[in-house]
Amino acid sequence: MSQLYAVRMDVALPPDMDPAARDDLLAREKAYSQRWQRSGHWLHIWRCVGQYANLSVFAVDSNEQLHQILWGLPLFPYMTITVTPLSPHPSDIAQDPAHDSTAQ
């Protein structure tokens, strides 16, 4: 069974980074993250408006798998990452088998 995590990633690239190195790094980051999205382990990714940051949701088999995914990010050395384990909420109607999806 997969474990769910919300992960916030804030990026701080050096302002004097070589533009060609920056472009290469960003291309590798995009390819890496999209591989994990296609695998089904990186469920969602949202941009945090006005910031060089994203909020993502991961479904992984273990803490170790999430750790390996995050450490493998090409941008990892330039990130501050906050991980929050997620659990179903008892008031979530999507978790209630008796929930009728029609509007009342």
UniProtKB/TrEMBL annotation:
Residues 4-92 form the Muconolactone isomerase domain. The keyword DNA damage does not apply. It catalyses: (S)-muconolactone = (4,5-dihydro-5-oxofuran-2-yl)-acetate. One of its GO terms (biological process) is beta-ketoadipate pathway. Keywords: Aromatic hydrocarbons catabolism, Isomerase. Its EC number is 5.3.3.4. One of its GO terms (molecular function) is muconolactone delta-isomerase activity. Pathway: Aromatic compound metabolism; beta-ketoadipate pathway; 5-oxo-4,5-dihydro-2-furylacetate from catechol: step 3/3. SUPFAM superfamilies: Dimeric alpha+beta barrel. InterPro entries: Dimeric_a/b-barrel (IPR011008), MLI_dom (IPR026029), Muconolactone_d_Isoase (IPR003464). NCBIfam families: muco_delta. Belongs to the muconolactone Delta-isomerase family. This is Muconolactone Delta-isomerase. It comes from Geodermatophilus africanus.
